Amino acid sequence: MAGLTSSTIGRKYAMALSAIFLLIFLVMHLSVNLLSVFGADAYNNASQFMGYNPLIQFVMQPVLIFAVIFHFVMGFVLEIKNQKARPVKYEANNPSHNSTWMSRNMIISGAVVLAFIFLHMYDFWFHEMNYKYVDGLPIEESRFWGDLHAKFADAWRVIIYIISFILLGLHLGHGFQSSFQSIGARHPKYTPVIMALGKWYSILIPAGFIFIAIYHFVTQ
Question: Residue 87 gets which letter from DSSP?
Fold first, then answer.
């Protein structure tokens, strides 16, 4: 890992791999959460499996936490190095014509998404860790759906989630194709396919999470 992150190209490659891992995780996370819309039992069963499976809890969960931290830390490091490499802004440069606003401000959207992740962990992950390992309460299969449903009873929380997922969508809109480009997946034949997939991914994934939040709010 140290060798991979010792150069700018290596850091971009490592960041792209962590991004692709997180892209896959978002699909899985949305799939499980969507079950809460179709019925409490389905969501409770899936959540109990995810919450008490040793492989998921003690292998996949630490890997996920590391990937999140690594991805955002590496993003900030690359941004700082890029800024240092361009200390002078040329008057002839017109960034709005050369790149999109989001591609120039990934660090801003990334910082907001990171702040949202901490809120999301406070709402669910810390609560879960406290329930299982601090209070040591017994397994209660029916609690998962109720906990999720109760979190979206307040309009202000739903609004924060909606805004955060919109920014996530903007972040994904550039990050999806950029990740594949960084690992060398760039070719006239399949680059348009990757860009099209990235566009739909950046719309459907955030829209799915927003739909879940609104659903639980209006069905209180």
Answer: -
Positive or negative, the CA dihedral 173, 162, 122, 32 is negative
Region of residue 39 (phi > 0: left; psi between -120 and 50: alpha; otherwise: beta): left
Q: What is the pLDDT of residues 206-218, one digit of tens each?
A: 999 999 999 999 9
* Angle between helix 143-151 and 8-38 (nearest 10): 110
Amino acid sitting at position 38: F
Q: What is the pLDDT of residues 118-147, one digit of tens each?
A: 999 999 999 899 988 888 888 887 899 999
User: What are the φ and ψ backbone dihedral angles of 58, each rounded to 5 degrees?
Assistant: -110, -5
What the block records as the tokens of 203 is 């719309």
Retrieve residue 116's tokens: 């949202």
* High-pLDDT (> 90) share of the chain, %: 59
**Whole-Å CA distances, 46 to 24, 129, 204:** 18, 17, 22
